[in-house]
TrEMBL record:
<dbReference type="InterPro" id="IPR047930">
    <property type="entry name" value="Transpos_IS6"/>
</dbReference>
<dbReference type="Pfam" id="PF13610">
    <property type="entry name" value="DDE_Tnp_IS240"/>
</dbReference>
<keyword id="KW-0815">Transposition</keyword>
<dbReference type="InterPro" id="IPR052183">
    <property type="entry name" value="IS_Transposase"/>
</dbReference>
<feature type="domain" description="DDE">
    <location>
        <begin position="76"/>
        <end position="205"/>
    </location>
</feature>
<dbReference type="InterPro" id="IPR032874">
    <property type="entry name" value="DDE_dom"/>
</dbReference>
<keyword id="KW-0233">DNA recombination</keyword>
<protein>
    <submittedName>
        <fullName>IS6 family transposase</fullName>
    </submittedName>
</protein>
<keyword id="KW-0238">DNA-binding</keyword>
Length: 236
């Protein structure tokens, strides 16, 4: 196979296939940079973990932005939730929104858990999605109600802890990555990493109602989109 040399990979020693594969491994699975380095070494590719880090920083967000544009339209029911994460010994809050199908709409790392922080999340969601939801579902944190009344006054708001399991469950992959990475080093690092991680997870997500044949078709489609996003398909 002739290595791919798409324009975005110009001046890189390794071809697109290697770079995109390393980035995929890092964001798709709960692997540390050193684990990715070792997996590449097992395939005869000698790359340092620091090079993998630089590839993730350079290409990750661009890949995530393209994935977002290629995914199906999001649902009209938003589930919002927030979870505490410790960064450099200080509490921060990871705010996340998912739709009724489990797709992550957006995340926002903030140092506060109040109405101002909730408004920032809602405004960011409206800007990204281009439209308000039909229904917004949250836990009983009063900040959500105050933010909704100001930012999305016409949207139905349901507050009930039992209704918001979808958003709460979406935090589990973040917890796994947090343990692998031995906690995030800064709020900026957490925001950058999770903005990419969640979109890659969206692309390769397996809905629970799929049977084996449907899953294989969906996975093949996801790999095709990944090839297009990373430039391998067009440059091959």
């Amino acid at each position: 196979m002739t290595p791919t040399r798409a324009p975005r990979y110009a001046r890189h020693r390794f071809p697109a296939e290697v770079i995109s594969y390393a980035v995929w491994l890092y964001f798709r699975f709960p692997l540390s940079l050193r684990m990715v380095e070792e997996m590449l070494a097992a395939r005869g590719i000698e790359v340092s973990y620091e090079t993998v880090r630089q590839w993730a920083l350079k290409f990750g967000q661009g890949f995530a932005n393209q994935i977002r544009r290629r995914l199906p339209a999001t649902g009209d029911k938003w589930h919002l939730d927030e979870v505490v994460i410790t960064i450099a010994g200080r509490k921060h809050w990871l705010w996340r929104a998912v739709d009724q199908h489990g797709l992550v709409l957006d995340i926002l790392v903030q140092s506060r858990r109040n109405a101002k922080a909730a408004k920032r999340l809602l405004r960011k969601l409206l800007k990204k999605q281009g439209m308000a939801p039909r229904v917004m579902i949250t836990d009983k944190l009063a900040s959500y109600g105050a933010a909704k009344r100001e930012v999305m006054p016409g949207v139905e708001h349901r507050q009930h802890n039992g209704l918001n399991n979808r958003a709460e469950n979406s935090h589990q992959p973040t917890r796994r990555r947090e343990r692998i990475m031995k906690r995030f080093k800064s709020a900026g690092q957490a925001q950058r990493f999770l903005s990419v991680h969640d979109q890659v997870a969206n692309l390769f997500r397996r809905p629970s109602h799929f049977n084996a044949a449907d899953h294989r078709c969906a996975r093949a489609r996801a790999f095709q989109i990944w090839a297009e996003v990373t430039g391998i398909a067009s440059a091959a």
